[in-house]
Design goal:
The complex is a heterodimer of chains A (501) and B (493). Helices cover 73% and strands 3% of the residues of chain A. Chain A is built from 20 helices and two strands. In chain B, α5 packs antiparallel against α6, α7 crosses α10 and α10 crosses α13. A two-stranded antiparallel ribbon of chain B has the order 1-2. In chain B, a hairpin with a 4-residue loop joins β1 and β2. Chain B is mainly α. Classes of the chains: A mainly alpha (501), B mainly alpha (493). At the A-B interface, α5, α6 and α7 of A face α17, α18 and α20 of B.
């Protein structure tokens, strides 16, 4: 693995930009708040796009834009950031979705008080997310991982819907407690590194080369897994998610579902599999089974919801099940399916939450009975809803297709039974999306009361269109994305000595 | 008569190492003398504040005189080293930050006594000597010195019943702990014919093991009572609630640092014969303290009491890493003790500003919507609470991470898991406060009136909470060196 410092500082710039914008926001008068936040987050997105220029697309498993400043030398803790192919994807995804969330909030009638705080929370989240996806030091990763919590509880607790206090409280407690296990895991790993090499280290590329015995690997794997399983979430640990996502304001749910969940799955892929390959090989089947249980259970729960936002939230859980199941197949196709599904879900869940938020803005209800059939009277919006729905369902050409396809291929590499199991569970996940579309299009009153609604337009239309384009770019041109992260995945497989193409 | 004869073999130049202590002591006497001659007035109050601040500032300046890395003075009864110096700097600085609060708080509560200034300085003097000695007699005397000051300060609201109750409880149980310390010291002396902890611990052999262990257990018990470790914690919530809030902050921050230092000094000398029993005993106490402290804090409705129980829980965190008998464990413990001083004091000081406003009863519901009343105080309070909880990038996070590292070094994972459970319990009450402050509407409307000095000290603590968390190497280098050194000389014996 090589480190390229060419262009170093760009990541810091993109992390500082939102902070500078926040300071400006606090100083500026109330009426300039929205434009400043909008421009600030757009600039951040542009900077993250600009980082593509510094990447060598033939060696994307190396670390680019690399910077390293020691924090505590003796403990091997350093502020080291950089991107490889895999991080680059999530780096851009997080700035992009944060920008869209802020753009959406500009016209969201739900957000009408404490604007300064609202936008600064989103901008800070952007900074912390960039930190999460670009950190190569486990302690720095943990710091940013934890920091994303703080703006999010305020977003949920202050601007959320009815049960916001309860949800914010629950969200914080679940994530914080589980991540303490991660902290213990990181510190224990550092201590093992000391016992083996005589030096403390929290630097990921160093830790990869440790030779830990299987029992230790399993112990550490479990410690890491608890944290990421709650964040991802995997089924027995998912109960915070419907509350948090259901009660957060639209933009909050968008950021939560599209990026914050990816932190968990990204970390599972990068850290659990990268650092503890033998434990992963040992535990792969239980993990895949957990993933499949997540898919099936969450799909059924989704169908049972009568609140459209909770419906979308549970559908996220089910998608995350695919991601986890694919990842722990431990084959190249599995990794690929998992990663492309993360990206696809980033776009489609954002769009679905925006749909829910838009309907709420018009009808002031999340109840599926009340809003049934409402979409029919807003032609442009209804097209967007249909596109999003079919794309998330996993129709060929839609965003989720390649993820599901690769998952099934990877499962077939292990056994036909597993492949059939994945196939059946993907049937369930298509089922709830059909329910969703039927509810919005075909049911409900046929005349009258909805006619007065104004169709989607302006900023919101632009945001939804951008998401739709992204979704179909995943579905139609998956190699655009594969080319960026494939090398990292192969490298990851190489670390784990399990290349089987 | 030759003064040299009087002082025996003492080298007079060795007093130059004691300049900080002497300054504090002198300052206390100046204030005591002034209190006798001056009549009570507004000027006198201001004068007392400024004089005590002047002396403490001088003390801080005196630390810039080059301090030795490690040196025994006065026939090895007194030790000047970086650990002691660090502790002293922290104690003096924290006291300096508390001082501005005494004046207005006591006026608001309609009880003003000038004692508060010089008695806290006397206590501070005791803390400073406690922080820098291996000698049992010096430790005993300074323990008394600190404690007597604390008893008086606790009972400063002479008219109120809870105050008397708290002070009385503290006096009785504190007295018990002093007796235990003395008893333990007697055993240790009998076992080893020495009063120096280093000699005592390295004189361990099979014939005196039983006396030595008994002495050590009693000595440990005395300190656990002073620190407020469960099951000897019953005095602490009462005393902390009874005392004027700035005094509570003083006791919980500077006092805690001072009480922990002898245990920190003892830790490297726990050799392999004693290690297992030490690990189990300290570990059990720590586990109990963390769980009970946090669980009791969870059900409190009084903010001050809640913080008192959280202080107990934090003693548990620090004690837990003392059970890992490694230099990493020592570093973690030292770091955590120091930073607890910062964040604990910060929380108590914010509370004491709030208490100065009308109709404030310290009830947990009154903090609802605090952000609407006072942005600055609520944000800094949230910062301290997050630090106490251990959210990065505050000092509390670094402390907790180091505790985990220290425990992992010796494979004491059961204690680490207990720590996680305890922190999980604590999440409940810290986050509830934050949620109440920022996400509710205000229960009562008020404007807290804090003067410049008070605001400045809350600011300082808040900035330190973040800054020392982001740049831990500021403290780390010194702590790391002295811990390695203490372990090395302990190994040599």
């Amino acid at each position: 693995m090589h480190y390229y410092t060419y262009g170093a500082g760009l990541i810091n710039v993109s992390m500082l930009l939102p902070i500078i914008t926040t300071v400006l926001l606090i100083l500026a008068p109330e009426k300039y708040v929205k434009p400043i936040a909008f421009i600030g987050s757009f600039l951040t997105f542009l900077v993250s796009l600009y980082s593509l220029k510094f990447l060598d697309f033939s060696h994307l498993s190396d670390i680019y834009l690399y910077e390293n400043y020691p924090i505590i030398k003796e403990l091997g803790i350093s502020y080291s950031v950089g991107v490889d192919g895999l991080s680059e994807v999530f780096y851009i995804l997080s700035t992009f979705v944060s920008f869209l969330a802020i753009a959406w909030s500009v016209k969201d009638i739900q957000i009408k008080f404490r604007l300064k705080e609202y936008y600064s929370m989103f901008l800070l989240t952007t900074t912390f997310l960039i930190g999460v996806f670009t950190a190569w030091d486990l302690v720095v990763f943990y710091v940013f991982y934890e920091l994303t919590l703080i703006p999010m509880i305020f977003v949920i607790g202050v601007w959320g819907y009815k049960l916001r206090l309860y949800s914010a409280y629950k969200f914080f407690i679940y994530i914080y407690i589980s991540s303490l296990f991660l902290l213990l895991g990181i510190m224990a790993l550092s201590a093992y590194s000391f016992k083996e090499t005589g030096k403390f280290s929290a630097f990921y590329p160093n830790l990869v080369h440790l030779h830990l015995p299987l029992s230790v690997q399993i112990f550490l794997f479990v410690l890491f897994f608890i944290a990421f399983a709650v964040k991802t979430p995997i089924v027995p640990f998912h109960t915070w998610l419907p509350d948090a996502h259901g009660e957060a304001p639209t933009a909050g749910s968008v950021v939560l579902a599209a990026i914050l969940l990816k932190m968990g799955s990204y970390a599972l892929l990068r850290f659990n599999i990268g650092l503890f390959p033998e434990a992963s090989k040992y535990l792969w089947l239980p993990m895949v089974m957990l993933g499949i249980i997540t898919i099936i259970y969450a799909s059924w729960m989704t169908i049972a919801q009568n609140n459209i936002k909770r419906f979308v939230a549970y559908s996220s859980v089910s998608h995350m099940g695919f991601i986890v199941a694919a990842m722990f197949m431990l084959t190249f196709q599995g990794f690929r399916g998992s990663t492309i599904e993360m990206i696809a879900h980033g776009f489609s869940s954002a769009a679905l939450f925006m749909i829910a938020g838009f309907i709420y803005n018009r009808l002031h209800s999340f109840n599926t009975k009340t809003i049934a059939g409402s979409v029919r009277y807003m032609p442009v919006f209804s097209i967007l809803v249909a596109l999003t729905g079919f794309s998330a369902m996993g129709l060929p050409g839609g965003s989720s297709f390649w993820g599901k396809f690769s998952t099934i291929v990877a499962a077939k590499e292990h056994s036909l039974d597993l492949a059939l199991l994945v196939l059946v569970s993907s049937f369930f996940s298509a089922l709830y999306m059909l329910y969703f579309l039927r509810n919005l299009f075909l049911e409900g009153k046929s005349e009258g009361s909805f006619l007065a609604f104004v169709d989607i337009r302006g900023v919101k239309l632009a945001v939804m269109l951008a998401l739709a384009i992204c979704m179909f770019s995943v579905g139609l041109f998956p190699f655009l994305y594969y080319n960026v992260f494939d090398a990292s995945l192969i490298h990851l497989l190489g670390i784990a000595n399990m290349i089987k193409r | 008569m030759d003064i040299r004869l009087l002082l025996g073999s003492t080298n007079l130049y060795e007093f130059s190492y004691l300049i900080p202590e002497i300054l504090v002591f002198f300052g206390a006497f100046v204030l005591l003398a002034l209190d006798m001659i001056m009549r009570s007035s507004q000027t006198k109050r201001q004068l007392f504040l400024w004089i005590s601040m002047l002396f403490l500032s001088l003390t801080i300046l005196s630390f810039f005189i080059k301090q030795p890395f490690f040196r025994d003075v006065f026939s090895r009864t007194y030790t000047i080293d970086i650990l002691g110096t660090f502790a002293k700097i922290f104690e003096v600085c924290l006291t300096l930050l508390v001082l501005p609060f005494f004046h207005k708080y006591m006026i608001k509560k309609n009880t003003f006594y000038y004692e508060i200034y010089y008695i806290s300085l006397f206590s501070l003097f005791g803390m400073m000597t406690l922080s820098s000695s291996y000698n049992l007699i010096v430790i005993y005397v300074s323990l008394e010195m600190v404690s007597i000051g604390f008893y008086i300060l606790t009972g400063l609201f002479r008219g109120s019943f809870p105050s008397k109750e708290g002070a009385y409880k503290y006096l009785i149980i504190g007295g018990l702990s002093i007796v235990l310390a003395l008893y333990g010291a007697a055993f240790m002396y009998a076992a080893s014919k020495s009063l120096d902890i280093r000699d005592i611990m390295s004189s361990y052999n099979s014939s005196n093991a039983i006396y030595l262990t008994t002495g050590m257990v009693l000595f440990l018990l005395a300190f656990t009572i002073k620190i407020g470790i469960v099951p000897f914690h019953f005095w602490l919530p009462d005393a902390y609630t009874a005392a004027p809030t700035p005094v509570t902050g003083f006791m919980a921050s500077a006092g805690k640092i001072a009480f922990f230092i002898p245990l920190l000094r003892l830790m490297p000398y726990v050799n392999q014969h004693l290690y297992n029993s030490w690990m189990i005993a300290v570990g059990m106490l720590a586990a109990l303290t963390m769980i009970v402290g946090n669980a009791l804090a969870l059900v409190q409705t009084d903010l001050k009491r809640l913080l008192a129980y959280s202080s107990i829980a934090h003693s548990g965190y620090i004690l837990s890493v003392l059970s890992s008998n490694s230099s990493m464990g020592l570093k973690a413990a030292i770091y955590f003790v120091f930073v607890y001083g910062i964040m604990g004091l910060g929380a108590f000081l914010v509370l004491s500003i709030l208490e100065q406003s009308e109709n404030w009863e310290n009830s947990i519901h009154q903090i609802g919507g605090l952000y609407r009343n006072t942005g600055f105080l609520s944000i800094s309070f949230a910062m301290f609470l997050f630090a106490l909880l251990g959210i990065p990038p505050t000092v509390g996070f670094v402390g907790k991470a180091l505790v985990f590292l220290g425990l992992a070094m010796k494979n004491i994972y059961w204690l680490a898991i207990v720590l996680i459970i305890a922190t999980a319990i604590s999440t409940g009450y810290y986050v509830r406060l934050v949620v109440l402050m920022f996400m509710k509407d205000a229960e009562i409307r008020f404007k807290p009136d804090a003067d410049t000095l008070e605001n400045a000290s809350v600011w300082t603590l808040a900035i330190l909470t973040i800054l020392l968390g982001m740049l831990p190497m500021v403290l780390w280098t010194g702590i790391s060196n002295i811990s390695e050194f203490l372990f090395k000389i302990a190994m040599l014996r």
